[in-house]
Design brief:
mainly alpha; Twin transmembrane helix small protein; DUF2909; transmembrane helix; elongated; membrane; transmembrane
C-alpha cells in the first residue's frame, strides 16, 4: 500500500514540475528561462526515477503488471490451425 502512495506522490511531483516549467515558459525573461531548464531537468530526472522504480518493483515481484492490454481467451485445446477458419481464397 505504501509503495503505491510513494508512486502517486512521485507522479504528482512530475506533474508539478511540468506545470512549473509551463509557468516559467510563459514569462519569457532570462531568469525564467533558467528556472524553466531547472524545472524540466527535475521532471526528466523524476520520470527516469519513476521508471526505474516500477521496473525494479516488478522484477522483485512487489508490483504485478498486466501481461496484455486486451483480454486473452484461452481454449482447453490450445490454438491450432484447424480452429481458425480462413477464407477459401487463401
Amino acid at each position: 500500500m505504501w509503495i503505491k502512495v510513494v508512486l502517486i506522490i512521485l507522479m504528482l511531483a512530475i506533474l508539478f514540475s511540468l506545470f512549473r516549467g509551463l509557468f516559467f515558459l510563459g514569462k519569457g525573461d532570462e531568469e525564467s528561462s533558467k528556472k524553466l531548464v531547472k524545472a524540466l531537468s527535475w521532471r526528466i530526472g523524476l520520470s527516469i526515477l519513476l521508471f526505474i522504480i516500477v521496473i525494479l518493483l516488478h522484477y522483485f515481484g512487489v508490483l504485478e503488471l498486466r501481461e496484455s492490454v486486451l483480454p486473452v481467451e484461452t481454449s482447453p485445446q490450445g490454438t491450432s490451425s484447424e480452429s481458425i477458419k480462413l477464407p477459401k481464397s487463401w
